[in-house]
Design a protein that fits this description.
By secondary structure, this protein is α/β, with parallel strands linked by helices. The protein is about 25% helix and about 25% strand. The protein binds iron/sulfur cluster (2 copies).
């Protein structure tokens, strides 16, 4: 059982968790809303430290990340537990239920396995990695030390101190921005829009971290043009180069509403493209996934399912940002280091 950081003792043997905006106050023996942080005799402990629910090698596009090492593979690790309770969670077996088989692995063992896989990066993903911040911070330092890049896939619902520590070690992050209503964030999901927006803002300010954002288009939560405009305006205010993934929802867990219609996704994507340069459609086979140059319209990256072809991107001069092969515009992508082949086979 690991020792937790990000907590403080309160009165009567209680502890206050400072990791996320839920700020759980836990009496002796109680676990937080995420179920993976517990008060044990007046100290906060981590009963699921190093308990890994999943290990896999994925295409980076699956995270989804379209501008970071396109065409590469990423060694991906999942944990158990989550600080939100989205009723449409597609990973609910590992985010909401904890009686699942898991594999114990130390950060050093994880990084060693990632290094041996030949992938250029290591992703913390699937359920919510942030509730295991102590493990992540250790693994991220070791990963960087052995030449791997860190990828974080998160709901972004973290306190400021945790966001600062994690993002300083992150090379690329995909943040779920689930809707544009603070009321729905709290009532339906158990999260805080303000914390997620501040997480994204902080990531966008860091030149060392590439940020992409995903909104799952869920009926009644995030399928209105007005809500989508709020999200697109917010992102465009940070940078119109932030890629936005609008993903189709499919019924899962406690949510039975029909799947998002392709027509709705297309019209929301068209709306967002008025404000953002890179808007992708996710979970809809065969369309909306390619990258085009915003200056000349040339096709930069073609994606069909997880088959990715780099067609119009070339390394920038002197190690600068990549350029469009047609018009030489500088583009917000991170390419693999020269000499590494796509899909991590080097
Ligand atoms: S991480 Fe969030 S949900 Fe979990 S115990 Fe801490 S405050 Fe509560
Ligand atoms: S934040 Fe992600 S993992 Fe957590 S409940 Fe929501 S969809 Fe599931």
């Amino acid at each position: 059982m690991g020792e937790a950081a990000f907590w403080e003792a309160t009165e009567d043997g209680k502890v206050a968790c400072l990791l996320c905006p839920r700020r759980c106050i836990l009496g002796p023996g109680q676990a937080g809303a995420c179920k993976v942080r517990r008060n044990e005799a007046g100290r906060m402990v981590l009963p699921f430290y190093g308990a890994l629910s999943s290990l896999a090698v994925d295409p980076i596009e699956k995270k989804p990340l379209h501008h970071f090492l396109p065409g590469s593979q990423v060694f991906s690790v999942g944990f158990l537990g989550c600080n939100l309770r989205c009723p449409f969670c597609q990973n609910w077996e590992i985010s909401q239920e904890l009686d699942r088989p898991f594999r114990p692995m130390s950060p050093a063992e994880l990084v060693d396995a990632a290094r041996r896989s030949g992938c250029p990066s290591l992703a913390y993903t699937y359920s919510e990695p942030i509730v295991h911040a102590e493990y992540l911070l250790e693994a991220m330092d070791l990963a960087r030390g052995s030449g791997l890049r860190n990828v974080l896939v998160t709901n972004g619902c973290a306190s400021e101190a945790v966001a600062v520590e994690l993002l300083a070690r992150t090379d690329a992050v995909n943040v779920d921005l689930k809707c544009w209503s603070a009321e729905d964030y709290g009532r339906i999901l158990g999260g805080k829009l303000e914390a997620v927006a501040s997480f994204i803002r902080r990531a966008a300010e860091l030149p060392s971290c590439l940020v992409e954002v995903t909104t799952l288009v869920v009926p009644g939560l995030s399928d209105s043009a007005e809500g989508l405009r709020g999200i697109a305006r917010f992102l465009a205010g940070l940078s119109p180069d932030i890629p936005l993934h609008l993903s189709a929802y499919h019924p899962a867990y406690r949510f039975k509403a029909p799947a998002t219609s392709p027509g709705l996704l297309r019209s929301l994507a068209a709306e967002a493209k008025g404000l953002l340069r890179y808007v992708y459609i996710g979970n809809l086979t065969g369309e909306g996934a390619d990258s085009a140059c915003p200056s000349c319209g040339a096709l930069l990256v073609r994606r069909r399912g997880y088959a990715t072809e780099l067609l119009g991107l070339e390394p920038g001069p002197g190690g600068g940002p990549p350029r469009c092969s047609s018009c030489s515009a500088s583009l917000p992508f991170v390419l693999e280091a020269a000499g590494r082949s796509p899909r991590g086979s080097a």
